[in-house]
Records
---
Amino acid sequence: MTDTPAPLPAGPIVVGTDGSPQARHAALFALREAQLRGTGLRAVCAYDYTPIRFTGYGWMAAPEGATTLYEQLHDVARQAVTDTVHELRQQLGGPEVEVEIIAEAGRPAQVLLDASKDASLLVVGTRGSSAWGRLTLGSTSTEVVHHAHLPVVVVPADSRGASS
């Protein structure tokens, strides 16, 4: 008689979202995948408008009352992700997926990598930059692919059928 171990519960699927059409495609893909796998979804929005951004520049300082400004930026980012996920859930239908919303200040690639430590899959969109654009501007999807410790899906900018 062989005892087979019980399957471990799958970690959530993490999706990076920033309100762009490409991020909506990625979020829809991630929701569908979470339904298929019977796991949760962690929707992550990273933004970089923190006091740290202003340090190191003698001539530039964080504006007075910045704490309130940063709290407002966090709340706006979180609400935008919440609204997008709610809309996509209604559009998709099907089994209910437990969703965790995270809005965090920081470099998008690093925030996504940190948020995916216990995840089973990381999903990001891409704006479809040329090779030159990735070299000169940097790319969250490229950085995530190179540094992730788990499977990554990069949903292309032109993902036909992603919004249907």
---
Amino acid sequence: MNKLAGLIQKGLEAVLVILLAALVMLVLWQVASRFLLSSPSSFTDELSRYLMIWVALLGAAWVTAIKAHLAIDLLSERLKPAYAIRLQVLLQLLILGFALGVLVYGGSNLVHLTLRLEQVSAALELPLGYVYLVLPASGLLISFFSIHHILIMLKEGK
């Protein structure tokens, strides 16, 4: 499972680099077309917003993978190692519950609804369900990494 987690993490890093590079290029083009050419590009504003959403949510999955999410370690530092592991497992279970409930379940419902209603974006005329696909995708990734961390902690705790 460690090898699979490593492969998924590396793939996620590659996707994030590509998305972030595209986001930077789009914003640069938007600024250049608006101020240098006096003719703002119509699609870059909307596409950059969607890419920012994807970068943020996939970035959250990546941060979960490397266990670098915001945490207050004050309590776990004061606990005995066995209790600290239990606390970390509890926190990972809370993350897992949020990811499955809100991102996977809620995000899947949102994707289904927007595709069924055939909602499209204004400038790109892209079905919004495709934009929202990042919600269940990031939720699945966060869930996978959370389960992976729980298994590692339980193995180390014994």
---
Amino acid sequence: MDITYRQPARAQLITAEDREVPVPATLRYTAEDPLAVFVDFPSEVTLDGEDVTWTFARSLLDEGLDAPAGRGDVHIWPCGRARTVLEFHSPWGIALLQFDTPALRRFLLHTYAVVAAGQEDVAEDVERGLSALFGGV
């Protein structure tokens, strides 16, 4: 069953000049991909004018709300009690965004209501994917 939870969020893009620019985003979680969370940005705030989605582990978001976390393309850390920073690395540069921590915690709690922690059994999805890849052999 596909259950998707979406939550609008307001982020502040931190520019190279240390200015904060408001950026709309949507936090998204789907039971079909229970280990991941998605942050969707509309085309009007992206460099190439196309919608952009960042995908990373739900556990990374959980960990990053309380302590610095992440390697590679996504890093998350608390910034005081009220803000959390999400840092996205791409071939075109780095985007540094601040989100309200209570909004991220609320989103995370809703994701756990969709699929509880420890219940992300993906074995069936892996089997289905392998079967499709190898033609049911």
